[in-house]
Amino acid sequence: MSTPKKVVPLRRVGTHGPDVSVLSLGSWHTYDRMAFEDAVAMVRHAVDLGINLFDVGVYGFPGHPPVFTDVLFSAIVRAAGISRDEYLLSAKLWLEPYPEMSLREQLEKALFRVGTDRADLVILGDIRRDDLDLNQLAVDLAELEVDGIIGCWGVNNWSATAVRTIRDHAIQAGSPGPQIAQLKYSPCRRSIPDGAPFAQVFAEGITMQASDILEGGILAGNKKPGREIGRDPGGVRERIIEAADGLAAVAAELEVTPAQLCVAFTLTHPSVSTVLFGATKMQQLVDNVNAIELVERVGAERLRELVAPFWVDADVVNPEGP
């Protein structure tokens, strides 16, 4: 069987990050819901198409059943014959146990589970506490960069103020600072990534990883997801469910799937480096990759016009962020 042509282009992460595929594959509630051989085939095909960034987090929490999706990823890449230099690993660092558990200890445990000795990118989890010492956090991250355990780092759903604050601390510590902001972004959730506060963040060289682009599958047509999905800032999920039919109608007019339309929309943001999505079927992967062609065929401006009526968190969510 011939290897497919690489069709997924690359974009730079921030000013000091690597060149990553404009589509990145997530692992939250994916590999643990697939037959192993199917997961191997899908990840192999993703790499062959040009996807080089894989988000692999330790998603288990105390009091909850153990989760092994990251361990499965280690076995998947081995079975698929994918060498470590063929992909970039994005790991999660959670802030709840910090600083009692150091970033280094947490990261080393995560890397042990995934079977490697370094993360090309780490994403700091949401800030859910008031006593987080951003200066010390920046110092600790700078040390990990110097030691080569991480290549660069970013943040997940932080406020624009917090991003700029830790960037200032990081520069003082000798680090380039955060290179990417992972933000919820879809035709329905736009207030933060499209708002003025983050426009300033992006102007300073930080880029975006669009996440939760299908609202847990709702925007792909699954209005009652059978798995855990992300938080609902602004309490607009019911309105998103209502908007899903309208987006599906637009997609039908364009002769694409609703998922392709959502992926294509996120690719139109000028500061997006990569769009994160999860897939449990080969066809989902192929469809999402085909969204790249949709942007080229319809054009970014027209796509944004078509989905504009479905922006439901406008004037509901503070564009500054949480």
Automatic annotation (TrEMBL):
List the keywords (alphabetical).
NADP, Oxidoreductase
Q: What's one Pfam family the UniProt record gives for this protein?
A: Aldo_ket_red
Q: What residue stretches are annotated with the NADP-dependent oxidoreductase domain? A: 23-294
Q: Where are the transmembrane segments?
A: none
**Which domain of life does the protein's organism represent?**
Bacteria
Entry keyword annotation includes Oxidoreductase: yes
What Gene3D superfamilies has UniProt attached to this entry? NADP-dependent oxidoreductase domain
* InterPro entries listed in its UniProt record: K_chnl_volt-dep_bsu_KCNAB-rel, NAD(P)_OxRdtase_dom_sf, NADP_OxRdtase_dom
Q: So what family is this one in?
A: Belongs to the shaker potassium channel beta subunit family.
Give the protein's recorded name.
Aldo/keto reductase
Its organism's taxonomic lineage begins at:
Bacteria, Bacillati, Actinomycetota, Actinomycetes, Streptosporangiales
